[in-house]
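re the bet — no i am not wrong, look at it urself. input seq straight from the record:
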Amino acid sequence: MIKPLLKLTVHAGRHNRTHCPVSYRIPTDAPLLQGSGIELLHLSTAAGEPVPLQCEENGGTVTLHWIVPKLGAGESAVFIVQAGGQRQEAGEGIELIEKEHQLDIHIGGAFFTSYVYDPQRAKPYLGPVIGPYGESFTRLDFETKEHPHHRSVWLAVGDVNGVDLWNEPKDRHGIQTFEGFKERVSGPVFARLTASQQWCNHGKRPQMAEQRTMTFYNTPAGERFIDLDTELRMLGRIEFGATKEAGPLGIRVAESMKAENGGTIVNAFGSVGEAECWGERAPWCDYYGTVGGKTLGIAAFDHPGNMDFPTFWHVRDYGLLAANNLYFLGGKLFQKGETIRYKHRIYFHEGDTAAAGVANKYHDYIHPPVVTAEEPE
């Protein structure tokens, strides 16, 4: 027997929402959960249409996760949490497939991207990132001599105690060593990977311990995004130099997308092109162009909680999209045991900046819809 437990109302607020992840927390000892394990919970619209639901139990709470397909500014939508019946299988959403030195992410049965931690490479990366028409949003090849260290999506800093972890000059660059996964979660709504890395000098001596959390959402192929949440813990006295070769976030767009081939760079303030966007601060920057005859783009979002928000952008007509404060504000000095945390969202979209609703998608990230709850009548 299916039992209604909770009515959840999602309020769009001042922004249009499309394929927007939302969540709601309930205490594990809440009466509505008694006698109904989270594996029995499922979700539907007010009209009774099933909605994929993913539940997480952690620290005395259960978090319900789902995706709102479409909601206009000022509108609200009702969802009903029920117990009983058959839950949607996780395989219908996101699947993680382990291979040698990489983990593939499949969404809806189709390959989306890989997290590659090959010890033969100087640092892990995400890539390729497959778009809605089967071609990659990003550049990933190993023959290109122009900036060959630009591998799709990566995290690095070009001067860590004088060691270059961005460029890869022969035998003198630093490396990021993959230590293993602390978390691997997948389901109908999202997948999450938490990887441990060490940032080492060219003698392989660890300088920083990194915990990198990557979250992938089950959204359509033309509206996909990845959340990156990175924490760096200093293993000694660490100085980030005031280097142009930095990020920590680096993205290399597909060759056909770059501005030199007709692509366009736009930031949150409406500045267009490298000349207007390079070295300027903005909450987000978008890079779009033609890939396989279709208009595709990549927007990078800076989180308000990041140090020195909003970031400066190191963005180039040749195809680089990177967030970088070190070159423009100067270096940073950290003592042993200190940590720094960076959060970003990368939005892989179809269409140009306006058609993809990049500005609204940024608000999905920093001002998500509000969810309220009440018991069903």
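see?? The two ends are 18 Å apart (CA to CA). told u. also The CA atoms of residues 257 and 289 lie 4 Å apart. so pay up
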